Amino acid sequence: TFGDESRAIYFHTSLAWMILDVTYKLSSPADNINWVYGLGKFPQKRISPHLFLMLLMLLYLIGLFLPSHYLLSWLF
């Protein structure tokens, strides 16, 4: 059957946040893997890197995971 597991959003969010956190801890700003230091090729310098990472995590939740969760729940 088709459908969206209602608890999947918690798993997806937790997994993405863990990946972003590990990427932040194990990579350098010059590499900027998963854009954890800034959007694009170069790291941003306007706000602290930790604050940027937290905002990026919230952006994933609010801008990607929640809309897709509600859209899939509505469709299926």
Structure description:
The chain is mostly helical and about 80 residues long. It has two helices and no strands. It has helices at about 10-25, 50-75. The longest helix is centred in the last third of the chain and has 27 residues, at about 50-75. The protein is elongated, with a radius of gyration of 15 Å. The model has no long low-confidence stretch (mean pLDDT about 90).
Question: Given the helix and strand composition, which structural class is it?
Answer: mainly alpha
pLDDT below 50 for ≥5 consecutive residues: which ranges? Answer: none
Along the chain, the helix and strand elements come as: HH
According to DSSP, the number of beta strands is 0
User: Which word captures the global form?
Assistant: elongated
How much strand content do the residues show? under 5%
**Tally of helical segments:** 2
- Roughly how many Å is the radius of gyration? 15 Å
Please give the largest β-sheet: none
Q: Oligomerization state of this entry?
A: single chain
The separation of the N and C termini measures 9 Å
The helical percent reads 55-70%
The average pLDDT is 91
Name the descriptors.
mainly alpha, 76 residues, 2 helices, 61% helix, single chain
In short:
This protein has helices at 8-26, 49-75. The protein is mainly α and 76 residues long.
Helices and strands in order, then pairings?
Layout lengths: L7 H19 L22 H27 L1
Helix pairs in contact: 1-2
